[in-house]
Amino acid sequence: MVDAKQVQPKMPVICSNNVPFARVDHMDGSDTIKLARDENGEHHYIPLSWVQSVDESGIHLDRPGKDAMKQWSTDPLH
User: What pTM did the predictor assign?
Assistant: First the structure.
């Protein structure tokens, strides 16, 4: 599992098909990532458990962006 301390503000969020689709706003608690506002001014939340790895290019998710966007939440997860 990825350490929450690796997740930093403004990091790109990259889906499993290697396409960036969001940026990190900040960690919300110890297991939820709050994403920066989208083009509609809305924040989204994803669980840290979706993160497969973190490296210099960003946070890599275990699912395609289309699936992640269907499953993310507009409300905090805790």
Answer: 0.93
